[in-house]
Amino acid sequence: MRKNDHCGNDRSRFHCISKKLKLRLKSTTIDKTLTYASETWILTDRDTKQINIFERKVYRRILGPVYDNEKEKRRILTSKEIYAMVKKPTITETIKLNRLRWFGHVQRMEENRIPERVLYMNLEKNEADR
Asked: In 1-130, at which residue ranges do the beta strands (DSSP E only) sit?
């Protein structure tokens, strides 16, 4: 019998991939998909909370439960433990950095460019426009 024969069926294949590879896959697929065009988003507190919840669910699925020696049973990781293990910025922090990077890019544009004009456009209506 070969070493990885238990990885034969579809349901157990996820367990046969190393945590390091799972984290890399998360970084290259989920994070990139989730933050696509995030420079232009306006995140509400609710959006931020839901994105963070989703990210922690993914991390908990990848990292799995830990054994608690005091209680002598397995438990899920806390949010602080997850971020201490991963040592990466959260998705919402990445989105904020993307937005800041985009703002700096627009700031350096020439004044006649559309993004530069839209950034400083006055959205208030004049009395004559009403």
From this structure: 66-68, 73-75
